[in-house]
Amino acid sequence: MATRIGVDIGGTFTDLVYYDDETGETVEAKVPTVPHAPEEGVVHAVRDHVPRHVVERAAFFLHGTTVGLNALLERRGATVGLLATEGFRDVLEIRRGDRAEMYNLFWRQPEPLVPRFRRLGVPERVMATGEVHRPLDEAAARAAIAQLLATEVDSVAVCLMNAYANPVHELRLEALLREAGFEGGISLSHRISGEFREYERTSTTVIDAFVRGRMSNYLQRLDARLRELGFGGTTLITRSGSGSMTFAEAEDRPFETIMSGPVGGAHGASEFAKVLGIDALITADVGGTSFDTALVLNGEPQVLYEGSIDGMPVQTPWVDVRSIGAGGGSLAHVDRGGLMRVGPQSAGAVPGPAAYGKGGTEPALTDAAAHLGMLGPGELASGITLDLAAAEGALGRVAQRLGQDVETVATGVLRIATAAMAGAMREVTVEQGLDPRSMVLLPFGGAGPLMAVLLAEELGMRRIIVPPYAGNFSAWGLLGADMVQSAARTLVTVLDEAGLASANGLLGELFGTLGQRSARPDATVASARLDLRYRGQEHSLTLDVPLDGLRIEAAPETLRASFAEEYRKTFGGVLDAAVEIVAVRATYTVHLPPREMKVSASKASDAAARSVEAHSFAHGRRMPFLVLPRTSIARPVDGPAIVTEATSTLYVDAGWRVAPGAHGELLLEKVKG
Amino acid sequence: MTMQDTVLHRAGISRTKATDAVDPITTEVVRHALNSAANQMKRALVRTAFSPVIYEVLDFAVALYDRDVRLLAQAPSLPMFMGTLNFCVIEAVKGIGGEARLNEGDIIIYNWPYGTGSHPQDLAVVMPAFHDGQLVGYAAIKGHWLDIAGKDPYCTDTIDVFQEGTIYPGVKIVSRGELNDEIYRIILANSRVPKMIAGDLNAEIVGVRTGVRALLEVVERFGPEVFGRAVEEMFDHGERVVRDYFRRIPDGRYIGHGVMDGNGVEPGEVPFQVAVEVRGDGVRLDFSGVPGQQAGPINCPVPSTISTSRVAISMLAGMGEAPNEGHFRAVEVVTRPGTMFHPLPPAPCFLYGWPALQAIEVIYQAISTAAPDLVPAMSGGCICSLVHWGTREATGEPWADGAPHPTGQGAWRGGDGGTMLHISESATRFSPVEVWESRNPWLVERMELAQDSCGPGEWRGGLGIDFDFRMLEDTYVTTSVERTKNPPWGLEGGQSARANDALILRQDGTVESRPKHTRIAVRKGDVLRLSTGGGGGFGDPGGRSPEAVRRDLANGYISEEFARRHHPQAFD
Question: Distance of CA A59 to CAs A62, A138, A629, Å?
Fold first, then answer.
């Protein structure tokens, strides 16, 4: 048992959940995100909501943040310069020549993260074998660096041809950049990815550089502030590929944390699916700025080995969470063609939606919901009182431009956002041949419960489970994120006795490297995987292999048989060809101690039931909705109703019934239509 | 040859049975499930393929058909192949003796060019799907094989189809689930790179099996009856989308003009024209006015002429969605037997794809005369194909590789063109240089956007690319680069762009222009330089915003000289 604190920063709110192993208590809180200094939001949350003695005895601080992801989605990151091999400065713009929308004659490639005048070539060349074909021309490199630094870059990405095979020139350029007095972040492609394919590796490296400055400074400041508050344990951040890593490692590999925020939710959903025994659920995490959705099958999130953000490839394992720029803060506007759009620009925490009364003048999704009465009578439990007049004013300006009434615009904002979110959910289910109608929807995030019924209706889903701490669910999920450290290296060899011996030698080295990075607690579990393929193929399958200590225990023929089995499962047949090892992956996992899911029992409230006039999408008009605190729901209640709690508001349209569950969750079921 | 009568082809099959409508959600779920099935098939193929032409370049198409050979779904891959796959299925089944001789577990290979529409290298693999003993559809893949024992691995100068490769006229490579070893050995014996061929054939077998399994899952999940109704609904929707589009174009007959640099074996350019006839909500593409079939291999067999028409129209009118059979129903195609777009055997057709892909843009040019704002200016107008092969010095092993290359794309009203592969290969990717270098004896010295290669306009075309391949060992190359003599056209006052070219830079300093040439000996140390064309401009260059001109200048997309010449307004 270990006391731990989880904090998840969204674009709008910073969510905190802590678990105290002395009392077995789980406590949640929500504070506004401080965009210019996100760590201050974390400090506010910890200082104001976690007693000092709990901070002092906490063993782990687990963190998830969308700081990097939001920077990418909104294209608000560092000013990046790129050094490439001479003749290859345009790799980022030429891409692979394909079109994301293959039937769209007018498709335009996304604007590269680094414009051409900040992409410079340096004379050098390494061959695919790793042999240096042309030594780095240092005078020319210095000149290129001077030219690049004159464009006022915050960080520099270096991606040279074949650097995965020999990083010597990338390392030298790093030294020359420092010699030239550059103090910003430097991302070297060979450290980011050990894989070939220059466009994908450049893209990943540039993304790392784009978020590096922000992430690294941020983690250092946050760590220091937590120490000031008396925290003496381990600071961890979730990895894109699941699990968590120490802040120190994350500073070295910030790109691995790009999908840090959404992963907390996927972790929590997996843990929850296991507890409730749900085979297939879809998450709908609606924050202030972004919407994330993931598929959890048999209690496991889906992991991919190459991802893409906004059309930009990322060469790294990651949990398959699809994100779009739509959330409670997404702003409605009228585009040049006279159509109303919602997002991806967001009101963020400052000024926030107009209804928060902090100076926001453009209408956000939250304003539309507030205007329609979907958020209840007006006082949010997080202490904000909704300024309904401001919301209506903001909506009115858009309504005027469109020549529509305010009610139509407000419902339109909800409908457009729902369609966009449902599209992303279809991607993770229907487009993989799975029918969402038979699945359970798990909404969370500040605006997840608000959107849940609308999303379920759009997708034809009939069951929704609102987890406890729904508004802070990502932070809750963080508390279960095991510590994971991994290292991998390419080794192409036939899978026979000699090949396996080489793999074991390399595995020993990798575990040694991991051991040096930080001390290993007793609870550490070692595991290993091999990337295997048929000789001559390019793509490989990753196979878990049994270990005896730190060595692979199985015989080559056993591994070949397991590979054939996995291959048959994946592709439906096997080939008559030799099996090759392609890469060796070593992982240390520290399983965090399990925790209880204990929530205080609901009790019927004595207070007279209140009601509010709100818009029913089922009936297409306003009607009275019951307003109920979540804790008062002790037996099934028929909608229309609005269920309030500390960190989120649940909208239950007519035709839906809400009932309490055994683990603090609410179960929603469609009862009509 | 005497002038023959024209032939009218309908590009899409109409409703085969009247059924009750099914709800739109079910239709949508079935549509997504079918697309997903096609995607699973693609993923299996890509991940099991041996040659980079499949796994990096995606030079293939995968699709699922119903029992009437109507297109159910296809995964994003090569549109020009996709548009021919129904013919491949029909002819492959004819080849083995008809439907009655299909058994569960059979897999057929087929590559007779007049049935597939392509050259023999593009080989179709077809597998029937049976549900409860009833034929319910097909999974089909057409993929480019690196070598199939033609006179050269890639040819620009064949004079009949038999020089182009071994023909498999519809034979069961797998019969009731069992590999037919005798056919298999004939296939391997007829290739310069048998290991790659074996790997790719295996991958395609895995691919069609995956497709059939996924198709059957969809049929079983919804039941054959609901499935059938949803499919009819899906086709009708596709048809409505395209017909609705053509109501926006005034009725009339519009002519577009293209020109081939040469037919590959005789001197002289080969101009051709395509007429686009819009009548109400339908469109007829008339290829009857094209030249007679050519002595060299630029003849385009009928299935690819129809595919070209399908691709051109569905790209334009399909709302950006993946087409199905319904999208093709509004389209009719007219050809004349014995001509370049309806050649008769044994006319050579190795380069069938080049007139076909140019025809797409010629069709858009024709439409521009009626509705210029609906179409872009011309792109580089070619896939700029290079095919390389040789024998490795160290091991004596044969090797081969090949790829298309991106060009600038045409501008349109409201948008600058980008740099990407030709629209006929819109989901295709060209190989990463690092993958090339890890397999082939090359050093790529440059892959850079070419300054000033764009067509100027109020909206400018995309830039072309300069590639330098230095050979580290003696290599043979076949280049197939069209539109080197006639630059891409602009529209509405927009100007033309740089044309494509391919040069050999010998070590002794001599330079040879070799844009369409078979088996060029490029020796160790020589450089093959490919300069791909830009995209044509749209609108008067004098109307381009000074801010956009200055941005292009700062980024080095254009030179100051170019800017001053075409855009003096930016210097006032």
Answer: 10, 48, 34
pLDDT band at A49 (very low <50, low <70, confident <90, very high): very high
**Are residues B217 and B55 in contact, defined by beta-carbon separation less than 8 angstroms?**
no
Omega within 30 of 0 (cis) for the link into B398: no
What token pair was written down for A393? 């004013």
Mean pLDDT within A91-109: 90
In a domain, B290, yes or no: no
Query: Hey, how many other C-beta atoms are within 10 angstroms of the C-beta on A612?
Result: 18
- CA distance readout (Å), B496 to A337, B413, B463, B536: 29, 15, 12, 5
Q: Is residue B2 part of a domain?
A: no
Please report the number of interchain residue pairs, chain A to chain B, with beta-carbon separation below 8 angstroms. Answer: 175
Please report whether residue B114 resides in a domain: yes
Angstrom distance (rounded) from CA B331 to CA A140: 58
Structural domain span for residue B101:
21-243
In a domain, B541, yes or no: yes
Is A444 strand, coil or helix?
Answer: strand
Domain total for chain B? Answer: 2
Helix ranges (DSSP H) in A437-519: 448-459, 473-478, 497-517
Pick the CATH number of A483-590 from 3.80.10, 3.30.1490, 2.30.30, 1.10.10: 3.30.1490
Distance from the B267 Cα atom to the nearest Cα atom in chain A, whole angstroms: 32
pTM of the model: 0.81
Confidence at residue A572, expressed as pLDDT on a 0 to 100 scale:
58
Q: Which of B183, B209, B243 is the last residue of a domain?
A: B243
B88-141: pLDDT as tens digits: 999 999 999 999 999 999 999 999 999 999 999 999 999 999 999 999 999 999
Determine, for residues B36 and A430 on separate chains, whether the beta-carbon distance falls below 8 Å.
yes
* B253 in A contact zone (CB under 8 Å): no
Q: Any idea how long chain B is?
A: 572
**Domain edge (last residue) among B228, B243, B258:** B243
Cα B453 to Cα A96, B40, B338, B527, distances in angstroms: 19, 40, 38, 21
Q: Does position A102 have pLDDT exceeding 90, yes or no?
A: no
Bridge partners (DSSP) listed for residue A667: A465, A659
Query: Are A572 and B415 in contact (CB < 8 Å)?
Result: no
Q: Summarize the confidence of residues B27-49 as an average pLDDT.
A: 76
CA-CA distance, B275 to A444, in Å (whole number)?
Answer: 57
CB within 8 Å of chain A, chain B residues 169-188: none
Please answer whether residues A246 and A66 qualify as being in contact, where contact means their C-beta atoms are separated by less than 8 angstroms: no
Grade residue A422 by pLDDT with cuts at 50, 70 and 90.
confident
The answer to whether A99 and B406 are in contact (CB under 8 A) is: no
Query: Looking at the complex, does the CB of residue B418 fall below 8 Å from at least one CB of chain A?
Result: yes
Q: Comparing C-alpha atoms, which of A94, A261, A306 is closest to residue B408?
A: A94
Q: Residue A67: which of A187, A222, A184, A188 has the closest Cα?
A: A222
User: Which positions 43-72 of B are in contact with A (Cβ < 8 Å)?
Assistant: 44, 46-50, 52, 55-56, 58
Domain positions in chain A: 4-72+216-257, 78-208, 483-590, 610-670
Provide the shortest C-alpha distance from residue B449 to chain A (in Å). Answer: 7
| Banded pLDDT at B43 (limits 50, 70, 90) | confident
The identity of residue A478, as a single letter, is: L
Mean pLDDT of B471-496: 97
Range in A501-505, A591-595, A669-673, B536-540 with the lowest mean pLDDT: A591-595
ipTM: 0.91
CATH 3.40.50.2000 fits A4-72+216-257, yes or no: no
Least confident stretch, A301-315, A443-457, A644-658: A301-315
CA A613 – CA A623 distance, rounded (Å): 5
Compare CB distances from A433 to B33, B202, B446 and report the shortest one's residue: B33
Structure tokens at B440: 């082939």
